[in-house]
Amino acid sequence: MRSWIILGCLIQIVLSAERKNLNSIKITNVECIPNDEWFNDTKCILKPLKNRSILIQGRTFAKKPVKTLKVHIEIHRWYSGFRPYLVNFWSDFCDIISKPEKMNALMKPFYNLITTYSNLRGPCPIEGLIEISPAVPELPVIPSLLVTGTYRCVLTFVEKDLDQWIYTFRVKAEVTSALRE
């Protein structure tokens, strides 16, 4: 019973945070780590702008089609080293892209970020150029789930049928004000 109450509170925070941004977030580092069998020409770039915002850009080229894709989403918080914090789950990426109405509430912020800022909008298979177009991401939901501190978000992609790691995307960020009402 207690776990259902906690899950309900998390879902409420996610849904209410979409309407207002309670914290500010500064992206400080981004890493793209591809499996060379699957991807080449990989670039991830952070570029600071004059108004203290950060422009993020990335691109990679899929050498062969990715037919089924699982994504492992983790958020770590810095406590004398990065430790797991709040979010740690697997999801079937192809199912979410093809049927977004069936995704769980915790996946929605990540889905919105991926479909807004990348060209991963169509159903699987995923092939060819995958791109995060140059943009200053609007992050209204993610920081509202977090308190002041340094965080790392890790997205690990695995080819589901072959159970083979194909890509890891890491973003390090600092949240500068605590959640409060």
UniProtKB/TrEMBL annotation:
This is MD-2-related lipid-recognition domain-containing protein. Residues 1-16 form the signal peptide. Keywords: Signal. The keyword Signal applies. The keyword Glycoprotein does not apply. PANTHER family: DAEDALUS ON 3-RELATED, DAEDALUS ON 3-RELATED-RELATED. It comes from Hermetia illucens (Black soldier fly).
